[in-house]
UniProtKB/TrEMBL annotation:
The keyword Chaperone does not apply. Residues 185-278 form the Peptidase M20 dimerisation domain. InterPro entries: Amidohydrolase, Bact_exopeptidase_dim_dom, Peptidase_M20, Peptidase_M20_dimer. PANTHER family: METALLOPEPTIDASE, PUTATIVE (AFU_ORTHOLOGUE AFUA_6G09600)-RELATED, PEPTIDASE M20 FAMILY MEMBER. This is M20 aminoacylase family protein.
Amino acid sequence: MQLIDAIAAQAGYLQALRRDIHAHPELAFEETRTADLVADLLTQWGIPIHRGLGKTGVVGIVEGRKPGRAVGLRADMDALPIQESNHFAHASRHPGKMHACGHDGHTTMLLGAAQYLAGHRDFDGTIYLIFQPAEEHGGGAREMMRDGLFERFPMQAVFGLHNMPGIPAGTVALSPGPILASNNEFKLTVRGKGGHAAMPHLAVDPIAVAGQVMQAFQTIISRNKKPLETAVLSITMLHAGDVPNVIPDSCEMQGTVRAYSAETLDLIERRMREIAEGTAAVFGAQADFEFRRNYPATINHPAETAFAREVLLDMLPAGQVATQVPIMAAEDFSFMLEAVPGCYAFIGNGDGDHRLPGHGEGPCLVHNPSYDFNDSILPLGASFLATLARRWLARPQAQ
């Protein structure tokens, strides 16, 4: 493994920094302490900063020897509304908030790269360090873009990195094309006619209608969608009624839809609406259907992905540069990849053996109250980001 020596020497510092961030988690658009920490460190290292994009976002600017092209490196800063189950020294000090997805590690890896780049400006061009808020809830990438991220800091490529439990520590996985699905939510309210449960013929039971709709929704995946297209439709909430002997007036259903292609998503949304409204009409009820598209699919650009793989193959044994199989989770880095070519890679977080005594009983999976980031991968992630940016700026420009 070819790490940058100066970054590897900072492993202890990076670990302490990561654990400090972990102990002080902040939710979407509330990352004031984290943003202050990032801004203070970048300023100490002589890196000019801009604040306020996406409310709490921070952008650092590392200028090389002379003007040239520009590349961006992005890390997310927000935590999740989860009560942490771990009891080690750096566990969350804020009840109901936890860095359960490793954004504390992502921020630290980019800070490690930033510290090195600030002292090694032997490149031409500019490296933009993008510390983004609200990846989990709120679309912080989109909000930074709405505040002019790519207009104020024009770049020709952008790269991101996410930890992945289950992939061995020391391995990085990436692949071109769709790697994460779009994130979409729906809400269906079936409005019937309430009445006495012993006299259902005088009512229009919205629960019975909702049951028919639930079954029919699954036929969209099995009978309407092309078999080779991937999609998920999950109903996760169903609320109706308050009293055992009363048929309620309405029933509410909510859930999520995940897909890779816009065409498949269009089909699913259309068929859901048709099924909901048509089924309700058959039973004499009314359906109010809402469909919200949160994050688009994360689609890696082929050229940038191939370049990132080349960099990794120079740093790691070939067996530690893996192909990332697409998964149905979502990521708002997708907004950036829609605007600028780039690649989103996954760094192995291991199987949980790194966790200290006092960790929770659950597995070390993201969005799990027993999760903890693997500090041993911090130097690799920081070295990869710094090397990737410098080499991207050094490559010959296409004519």
